[in-house]
Structures are given as structure tokens and as C-alpha cells.
Amino acid sequence: MAIFIFAIVISSVYGAYRSTFRVTDSTKSVAEFSDMARIALERMAGDLESVYLGDGGSLQGERNDGETGRADQLTFTSAAHLVFTKTGPAAGYAMIRYATEVDEESGLLRLYRLDVPVRPGNGPMIDEEKGFPLCDRLAEIEYSYIDDQGDEHEEWNSREGAMVQEGGTRTGNFPAMVRLTLRFATSAEAEEQTVFATAVALPLPHRADTP
């Protein structure tokens, strides 16, 4: 009888400790996700707020579907070039790309930021470069594009619907706003996700017909 009572007590205590550890791990994960999301979204917002809308500027958003959800890609011309080396140009325009790669161990996504100096309209080939890792443990990354009429689109190409003004200056067709959504998870199989989102208004009024 004593052993039976002892087993019941131990089972109750173990269950309480297990629940406590589960809550602690969950809280730790949410804190880590929050830090990564804050850094990533602040960097992405800064880049988009400096998007170059003049002749040769572009913005292209592609929807991609991955194993755990959407893995969208976004490429645009920006004046928010960051310098990481002493020999790099201190200022100027850059072609910035946000793309993902699947982490083979976790099955989740890692987000990369590629920043290559360019002259608008003369962008380099950057398809084979990754850039710098910005955050990981992403189950999904989603971009959506809102035009001047308030309609939302899953993809965008600024070259479609562009206008050529007098003198040959080309004015791209940019969205009025870009919505960014990051979904973090502890594993590729986890059903529970932690979501962070923001929306960035592009710096000037735009002509934004449906692309």
C-alpha cells in the first residue's frame, strides 16, 4: 500500500514538473522568436522604406510554396545599401533580395538578405548568391502587395504596367504597401506557430494597377 501511494505521489509530482518544463521551453522559444522577428522585420522595413522608385528601379515579389508553408522571395532596388567590408562602397543603390533556404536538420526555413551594389537599371546576376542569414526556424514567410485601390496581391512585378515618360524615363508600377508575415515554429512537424507581421508603406505615391 505504501509503495502504491508513493507511486501516485511521484506520478503527480512528475506531471507537474513536466508541465512546468514545457511552459518554460515554450516561453523561451517565444522570446527567441520575438528577438529574431524584431531584427528581421526592422531590417526589411528599413530596406523597403528606401526602395528606389526612379528610372531603372524595380520590385519583384514571387510566391513560393515549401514543405511547411509559403517561402516567398522578394527582390527590389533600394538606397539602403549596407557596408560590411572596408573596401565596399559606402553609399549608393543596391539590389536587395530576401530569399529562404531549407535547414536540412530542422526542415524549417532560414531567411537570407542579399545586398549587391548596383546602378539602377543595370542589376547584376545574383541568382547563385545567398547573402547573410537574417533569421531561422521559420515555418513560413509570406509577402503580400497592396495597390492604391486597397486590393491585395500574392505576387508583384513592377515592370508590368510601367509607364515611359517624355525623355525615355521609365516609371515602374509599384505597390502602395507591402505586408510582411513571419511564422516561427519549434520543428517542421509542430502545429503551433508564433506569428509576427507588419506592413510597410512605400515612400511616395505610386501608380499601382493590378499587375
What features would you describe in this structure?
The termini are far apart. This protein is an alpha+beta fold and 211 residues long. The strands form two sheets. Strands 1, 2, 3, 4, 5, 6, 7, 10 and 11 form a nine-stranded antiparallel beta sheet that branches. A two-stranded antiparallel sheet has the order 8-9. The model is unreliable at 206-211 (pLDDT under 50). It has one domain. The chain is elongated, with a radius of gyration of 22 Å. It is 23% helix and 32% strand. It contains one helix and eleven strands. This is General secretion pathway protein J. InterPro entries: Pilin-like. It comes from Desulfoprunum benzoelyticum.
Helices and strands in order:
Blueprint: H1 2-49, E1 59-62, E2 73-78, E3 94-102, E4 109-117, E5 132-146, E6 152-153, E7 156-157, E8 163-164, E9 170-171, E10 177-184, E11 194-201
Antiparallel strand pairs: 1-2, 1-7, 2-3, 3-4, 4-5, 5-6, 5-10, 8-9, 10-11
Would you tell me the overall average pLDDT? 81
Whole-number total of structural domains = 1
Q: Over all CA atoms, what is the radius of gyration?
A: 22 Å
Largest sheet: 9 strands, antiparallel
Low-confidence stretches: 206-211
- Euclidean distance between termini CA atoms: 76 Å
What percent of residues adopt helix (DSSP H or I)?
10-25%
Q: How many β-strand stretches?
A: 11
Number of helices: 1
Protein name: General secretion pathway protein J
